[in-house]
Amino acid sequence: xxxxxxxxxxxxxxxxxxxxxxxxxxxxxxxxxxxxxxxxxxxxxxxxxxxxxxxxxxxxxxxxxxxxxxxxxxxxxxxxxxxxxxxxxxxxxxxxxxxxxxxxxxxxxxxxxxxxxxxxxxxxxxxxxxxxxxxxxxxxxxxxxxxxxxxxxxxxxxxxxxxxxxxxxxxxxxxxxxxxxxxxxxxxxxxxxxxxxxxxxxxxxxxxxxxxxxxxxxxxxxxxxxxxxxxxxxxxxxxxxxxxxxxxxxxxxxxxxxxxxxxxxxxxxxxxxxxxxxxxxxxxxxxxxxxxxxxxxxxxxxxxxxxxxxxxxxxxxxxxxxxxxxxxxxxxxxxxxxxxxxxxxxxxxxxxxxxxxxxxxxxxxxxxxxxxxxxxxxxxxxxxxxxxxxxxxxxxxxxxxxxxxxxxxxxxxxxxxxxxxxxxxxxxxxxxxxxxxxxxxxxxxxxxxxxxxxxxxxxxxxxxxxxxxxxxxxxxxxxxxxxxxxxxxxx
Length: 491
Description:
InterPro entries: Class_I_gatase-like (IPR029062), CobQ/CobB/MinD/ParA_Nub-bd_dom (IPR002586), CobQ_GATase1 (IPR033949), CobQ_N (IPR047045), CobQ_synth (IPR004459), GATase_3 (IPR011698), P-loop_NTPase (IPR027417). This protein is an alpha/beta fold.
């Protein structure tokens, strides 16, 4: 099996970015490459078509990695997706379909069947592609979970994958993190760690060189390279650690967009396209004062709609949103945010909460009823004479009374609700919305072209700062058999 595992010292160290960059770099060399992540824990997801034509759900990061690889996204690329609904429980998606819930109490017993499914999915991709670039999860040195691990070194052992470890120097302590990650692994796992990548470096590389030399001498592993921090690199994230506080140039923007940063926010990539608009200053906010002066308030998706609606009320954000709407301000609710804007949320089957009925903000004549069945789709439509498309992932069914239709939902005055994610990715719709609702001039920005240019930029950085050709050969030939163990080992 030709493959490579990209592990990391922590969450958000850069595993997803390096994986995507390698996928694009290999694809540009004519290699048929597929991304893979055995288990993803994220509320950012995407709808794709399975090989049998049915709709399925995978992590958003694996979707963008497939785009980078110029491959068709499919469930095998992310066989297990966990969507946190609370601090101790998650909704499971297995091979793209709902598979109940998992809690801390049932964690270990659930992992065994998932491991078998994940290994089969990896093996299937390895049969159909030249190379599989797998992304780990969190850190491979979660020694309390190693016996049941199938995402990091468990996967590496299954497929004999040479593994590189990515560390984020922006956080500090990167040398200790890289050395400690290796040293705490079992000897058999250490034998698959072939080298390191340092990510997000700013400054003079000469100052880093003594540390790189020492790390190589201490570990016997190569530092493959140092990737610089670059302001134009961004990807569809899977981790809420990546939600920015502020995006845009407030000195040139003519309209301000306030996106409420819900505690259980999901699919916050819905506003990525707005971040490219030069007329917009996009901010993620969490207090009523932050909403003052906003031209548009966006309530994004949520994996726990009722709990996040309670959070809005606890912080007084509900009154601020209602006051903004009643004074003529524009409000957009997407999926869970749409449900919050309605009259009522009912959950008789206790899909998301243990409360059968909850009052909404009352800004839209709509009612939501949650059921165990899940809606997945890739809908298309037309509004203001322009096409729009998106994707649907939700349990709630919204009932609408007598309001003006809007793609995936409803409009009442300057309050909009939609169950479709990704609507702003449609350039013509985004331009029409900004002009009709905010009076912002069209920019001519193509979101698809911007995404492609960023993936190519990422591949360029990989080619410039890492030995991409060597890593491709490593993926094909496997880890060398002369890598020494590093104490303490045997963890």
